[in-house]
Amino acid sequence: MNQPNLDPVAVLILFATAVFSPAVAAVVGPYLVILLGSTLGAYFRLGQRPPSTRAAGLRFFLAANCAAILFTVPLAVVAHKYLPGVEVNWLLGPMAFGIGLIGDRWPQIGQWIARKVAMLVDVLIRARANDHKTGDGNGS
User: What is the rounded distance in angstroms from the CA atom of residue 125 to the CA atom of residue 120?
Assistant: First the structure.
């Protein structure tokens, strides 16, 4: 029995065909998934931010959605290389949600990643130093 394709992109392409032609809906569908995911993530992030004006909130949503449109597909393709069992279409929504949820916290995320990389480098340096002290290094 042939099952219909129910990934989020296919479902939104189906809904978009009610408004657009099938050719246009095939292009618009993935962007609808990205916008829906990033808007939902930005909604949750906006609730965590200090109160601000409506214009500032609108700018935040616009920035989060633009960032999601730019970065979701490349991040989903990279994630697909590490998760080959998951199709890229299924990764678009969660990636866009994460980008919207990060929102304006990019500097904090970058600092966190830099700290983790520095810790990893320190561990590798210590491990290599211990190898040389015990004589287990490549030169012995």
Answer: 9
The DSSP code for 4 is P
Q: What confidence tens digit (pLDDT) does each residue in 63-110 have?
A: 899 999 999 999 999 999 988 888 888 889 999 999 999 877 777 877
56 and 88 Cβ atoms separated by less than 8 Å: no
Closest Cα to residue 68, out of 113, 101, 45? Answer: 101
Q: For residue 117, what are its two tokens?
A: 């990389």
Cα 32 to chain center, whole Å? Answer: 15
Instruction: Give the C-alpha distances (Å, rounded to integers) separating 88 from 17, 37, 63, 105, 137.
Output: 21, 14, 24, 25, 42
The pTM for the full model equals 0.71
